[in-house]
Amino acid sequence: MTSLALQAAAVRASADTSFATFDQLGLHPALLRAVADLGFATPTAVQQAAIPAALPDATGAAADLMVSSQTGSGKTAAYLLPLLHALLQASVDAAPRSAPRRGARWQPARPRVLVLCPTRELAQQVSADAIDLLRHARALRVATVVGGLPYQQQLQRLQGADVLVATPGRLLDLQRGGHVELDAVQHLVLDEADRMLDLGFADDLAAIHALTQSRGQTLMFSATFAPRVQQLAAGIMREPRQLTLATPQQRHQHIEQRLHWCDDAGHKRRLLQHWLRDGELQQAIVFASTQVECDALADELQQAGFAAVALHGAMPQGVRQRRLQALREGRVQILVATDVAARGIDVPTITHVFNYGLPMKAEDYVHRIGRTGRAGRSGIAVTMAEPRDRRRIAAIEALRREPIPEHTIAGLEPRLRPQAHRGTGAGRGRGRPGAGGWRSEGARRATSTGARRRY
Ligand code: AMP
């Protein structure tokens, strides 16, 4: 056994102690150098829990894990680091592998690590993170397979890939075409598993599970362990250990949440524009409910003089990538987006998230607000709700088991009483989702204008 394997074994044996530094996690020196280059001083909570639990033991066996985690928590490095460590360790033990020679006969890719993601954006972000972490271990190759990008270009990059990050549908297309063989996959990761189920990938996941039967480890990361996620895990994992990191209430403690009740669409627009002029705002994502609303709102904001662009799933992939790049480089200040398009966006300078069109599903609220307050910074998530949205607000509050604090802005207060919006007036509120015992008016925060308002 190599000294690294011994180190890893020691880490697993004491997996319940806390790991204040990356060095204590016993990771490969090339990864430790990369982590230091990236400026990660200490492992985040999910990294402290998941890295030792996912590392191989003295015999090389590695446990299956289900990890509840939110985006922004450092979850990507939490699974990439132990898996890249395992690959680097295996490469030390095995004979050196030569990179494909120019003009050599074309061979299908046979990755050893396969990461599945629900969206192109998340897959591209995960690949970029893997490349960053492997900057001092250039013998390992990372490839990405996502829908919407030219087939030929992806095929070229697949050659000799050790780590493959993919969306399920395009991966199966390439596998059926004989471009990828999945029988060498040792470690399978399902990132945002709940989201993959939402997007209808259950059958694709079952097919990929069957094609990677000889793998030794499966890791599943999900915002929730809802029954459908548990059911998926039961089908594809072996006695997984569950790591629950944050309850819905504990999450997003560094994100200030605010709820504004609006009388109508015009009131909502005025409030949004008021907020967009906030001096504290560096960059923002404004969420729309539909692609049509997304385009219309981006146009309207541009006409009002804001540096805003739209991003949604119906746009060509090239346009989406250029817009995301412009956001990362700070050339765009406001991104108006739909849920799917904004998944996985990781731009630390996003200070504000606006829920202009409310999410269809309460879980999406959690994903949306996680676009701000990234990498240890603080952020503000502002939700603008009309009276007809009150059921959706109740569902979000029930999921998170806490109310979103209500705020008003002087001169832009709603004409209707907040209680009327909430649907708690006489004769209202019966059957309201989430109308449980957790909500107390007294617990609601003061308005932004100072003392609690009376109407
Ligand atoms: P993720 O939850 O994987 O989307 O990561 C969110 C952000 O945190 C990314 O910008 C990472 O580069 C950053 N990050 C990950 N791990 C650490 C760490 N240990 N210290 C500081 N930042 C980190």
From TrEMBL:
Organism: Tepidimonas aquatica
Name of this protein: ATP-dependent RNA helicase RhlE
This protein's record includes keyword Secreted: no
A Gene Ontology term for the protein's cellular component: cytosol
Entry keyword set: ATP-binding, Helicase, Hydrolase, Nucleotide-binding
Compositionally biased tracts (Low complexity): 445-455
Documented EC number(s): 3.6.4.13
Domain Helicase C-terminal positions: 271-417
Organism phylogeny: Bacteria, Pseudomonadati, Pseudomonadota, Betaproteobacteria, Burkholderiales
